[in-house]
Amino acid sequence: MTMPTLLRQATACAAACVVAVCLAADQPKPSGESPMSVPSVKPFGALPDGREAHLFTLEVPGGWQATITDYGAIVTSFLVPPKHPGAGKPVDVVLGFDTLDGYLEGHPYFGAICGRYSNRIAKGRFELDGKAHELATNNGANHLHGGVKGFDKQLWKGTPKATERGPAVEFELVSPDGDEGYPGRLVARAVYTLTPSGELIVEMTATTDAATIVNLVNHSYWNLAGHGSGPITGHELAVEADRYLPVDAGAIPTGEFAPVEGTPFDFRPERTPWGRCGPAIASIPPDAGPDTPTGVDHCYVVRGWQPDGKLRTAATFRDPLSGRTLEVLSDQPGVQVYMGGFLDGSLKGKGGAVYVRNGGLCLETQKYPDSVHHPDWPSARLDPGTTYSHTMVHRFTR
Q: For residue 397, what are the β-bridge partners?
């Protein structure tokens, strides 16, 4: 090849490079752009009013996958891949339904973001700055998980993103003043992120234009043997708590912080071996009414909690047969441990799986239930100009 030909090719190559650079510079770059893929989105069915729900799929290399719908900001599935590639198929460890209809027909808060105030408020009443507020009594005489049409039954606005930590979806919901009886216009957000190591991070925030109360939770039901594998009686559990909140017949905390030692509620991690769910399920809680199913449905006081925003381990859940382990970390003072005692086999979930009694465990990090009636407990109050913040991390090992 002659020197002039080489020069012409070099000049053309340089010009092409300049054009490519200019075109790249003209393209908008989203904040936090990374090599991680943006979650895929597909239709998930229509609500009775005709609005369309969607399903967001978050995936990372290695087989980890989470699917989340904008209806209720619900985690509909979570796939844990085998420890060794080719050693089996990923296992779905979250209870839920294949279609939107299953959620619309009624369910026990499978995978949802619950609010505006999750868990229970005694008699559905509270006072704020001397003014009484009346809420729905949708759990006997008490208020539960935000009311008749709480955040779990709302269509959130979903935005898929690629972030430095992994694929994510941000959900936003505007709750107007007076919604379900709560004061103030609240803007709530829930961001789900799936990391390359398989962590599912849930970040919940909220702001308001008037004083209100907020206590958001993620209400996923976990069964590490697989979502339809039967009761969790053989699973092991460690809860980082020396005390729990006894409840009355309506599952409202009595105000006491009772020691777990010597009770069926003792799941301290230093126990050897770890406590199994079966004995607690077989023991009727001594401080609950006759209609309360067996097994734990109580809030635990997280060891060493301080209002410093630091993540602390709240609980660790393990299936000894498969070796799968879930560690839940949070910046909240309490964790409601619920062993699925109200499941009764009437619900058929994904793939026709029958969800039997005690078929899943909920680990709901949160403020203490009914905290609005206990001024000395960590407050659920939110004022204008401040931001409610709640982070929880689901960390898996195989």
A: 325
Catalytic residue among 219, 298, 390, 394: 219
Q: Write the pLDDT tens digit of every residue in 343-374.
A: 999 999 999 999 999 999 999 999 999 999 99
CA distance 378 to 82: 40
CATH: 3.60.10.10, 3.40.50.2000, 2.70.98.10, 1.20.120.80. Which one for 30-233+338-398?
A: 2.70.98.10
Question: 327, 364, 390, 394: which is the annotated catalytic residue?
Answer: 364
- 219 has catalytic annotation: yes
Q: How far apart are CA 390 and CA 331, in angstroms?
A: 6
- Find all residues with CB under 8 Å of 200, minimum gap 6, and list them: 66, 75, 78, 192, 193, 194, 393, 394
Taking a C-beta distance cutoff of 8 angstroms, is the pair 135, 182 a contact? yes
In degrees, to the nearest 5, what angle opens at C-alpha 392 toward C-alphas 123 and 285? 45
Q: What average pLDDT does this structure show over 245-249? A: 93
Alpha-carbon span 152 to 157, nearest angstrom: 13
Could you tell me the pTM of the whole model?
Answer: 0.90
Q: Is the peptide bond before 196 cis (omega within 30 degrees of 0)?
A: no
